[in-house]
What we know:
The chain has 13 helices and 17 strands. By secondary structure, it is of the alpha/beta class. The two termini are 43 Å apart. Strand 14 and strand 15 form a beta hairpin. The chain is 35% helix and 25% strand. It has three domains: 5-136 and 318-322, NAD(P)-binding Rossmann-like Domain (Rossmann fold); 141-301, Dihydrodipicolinate Reductase, domain 2, CATH 3.30.360.10; 343-427, 2-Layer Sandwich (Alpha-Beta Plaits). Bound molecules: L-homoserine. The site of L-homoserine has 7 residues, from helix 6.
Amino acid sequence: MNEKTINIGLIGFGTIGSGVIEIFNQNIDLIQEKVGKEIILKKVVDLDITTDRGVEISPEKLSTDIDEILEDPEISIVIELIGGYEPAFSFIIKALKNGKNVVTANKALLAKYWKEVISTAEKNNVRIAFEASVGGGIPLLQPLNESLAANNFNGIYGIINGTANYILSKMSEKELNLDDVLKEAQEKGYAEQDPTFDIEGHDTAQKLIILTILGFGTYLTQDKFHVEGITQITPLDIKFTSKNLGYVTKLLGISRKIDGELEVRVHPTLIPHNHLLASVNDVFNGVYLIGDAVGPVMMYGQGAGMMPTASAIMGDCIDIINNPNKKINYGPPKKIEERIKSMDDVVSKYYIRLNAIDQPGVLHNLSGILSNFNISLESVNQDKNEKNDAIPIFLVTHKAYEKDIRNAINEIDQLPQIQAPSTLIRILDE
Ligand code: HSE
């Protein structure tokens, strides 16, 4: 960018938008010094420009008319922070077609419309930057795209949803069930009023799609991989696996290369206590990746929130100003269906909790079914039966095929001594 003055337009005066304004108010001198240009936040557009967001902004910068950004030839960078698919998609496409660079945190939109958005940016010789879309304030995508671009990645493992991580951390700390922690998290403003996307794993899946594109050059849609949330996790599972087996329970997005195929999945995962990801607690996010040259790398920080996310947004603006012609380093479009491993063929160790009536022959029946499916057990534990009703039996398997485990559990759940459904959690195995 040759201009001495860079004009930025901000679409969306919500929490993150207010954070961007706050960074302008607090740090713009520092940023201008670093970039060597004057940077002006020229316009902020939102449907609601009257609610007090607690940040200072002169009223003439506020507008409800989107064209004051999209049709202003002086604005060269548009920040989109309204989220969702529409009208965000139309605004982004129009901005790109009008020759404007775009900065967004919108992972849902990128995960769904990746090809359209990227090709529109390329055709119009402008940049789309989205560091804030995964891991909030953590510098993650730029390192993947640049500093680590010389690597083939063996695997990318991400705790990338702060809400789910907060809930699991508190369930573990306080031995509470999910609903109670969720209620407290909502009261504190850590969880959305409708937390479905976070706790059912969809938010993690969208972010994992972006990591998979940058890490493996593979674009895929959410229907092509297994996505499972945390709603089946109980304090009993968390406590038993922590105290007796040495694991912490995390909602993990996994994207990794196995025998030339890509394995992509989102599910609760038992992680050994001494693994770096095990110490990512509360609303923090962590991404652990392994490159063939660099080896393991861990990135950690605040994955959401007003100022951390605004930090990533402003970082993208600075990068665009400094490097307007930079390319996104992803591979050519591939036939992804050929490359994604079916969940049935995934191999893992498993933790299984069964609720069994305490009668002779239960373990005999179980071991018969497990051996029919070639499943070998690493450990079996049973609680003392004090009440004379169903008791939990905790199994840990050696490595087994997912399809065998599922088929075995289906059969086990039919046994008259078993109170279905049994609980299944996969164990991390890098
Ligand atoms: N809802 C997300 C989370 C934050 O809980 O991590 C935005 O990506």
